[in-house]
Amino acid sequence: MAPSHQQSAQEAEPKMPLREDQLPLSTTPLETARLLLRMPRETDLDAIYELHADPVTNRFSPGGLLGSRAAAETLLQGWLAHWQVQGFGYWAIALREQPDELIGLGGIMSRPVAGQPGLYLYFRFRPQHWGQGYASEMAQAALALAFEQLQAGAVQAVVQPANTPSRKTLDRLGLLLKGSLADVPGQAPSLQYEITAARWAALPRTPTEPTPFGA
Fold first, then answer.
1. What does the alpha-carbon distance between residue 36 and residue 41 come to, in Å, rounded to a whole number?
2. What is the model's pTM?
């Protein structure tokens, strides 16, 4: 699930500063059953550029390919600034047994959707790691952070209508289709998904099924 570069520019500006007592206890990497989720760092720049300049991973990105390494640097600095202000943000994702090899990016950040501030769920993985349930595994950790630590009321996601794998992943995570929004001029409207704190609390905590041919 890939935001446009217009959306990425919005993400470069930290929103909604949290009180000190709302911040997570630390930026210590988080481990799930198979994944290592950590704060991005400067040494991730090349991998971030590769993920955003790959035609395969950008197939459903209405903004197209990231144009330069400098643009990737701007994106990374925005993510790091969000971590500094908010105490959380998008993770660099690796397999636990290969912690130095970045396989994807994802998590939650504060950014407006349809003009309303809130938390936004994002993920992007290298194609060779699609179809193994990694996006769902990461997203469950991100939603737990949103609702169980940050006490968020809801989490939003935006996806292109043709991006069937990401839509199925969102469905399996419990997000519901809320509407559509014209987020990129000249492009078809994107679909807006949402999961509320009440819905999250009512869902069973079971592993989601992998999505075939998708992350």
1. 14
2. 0.84
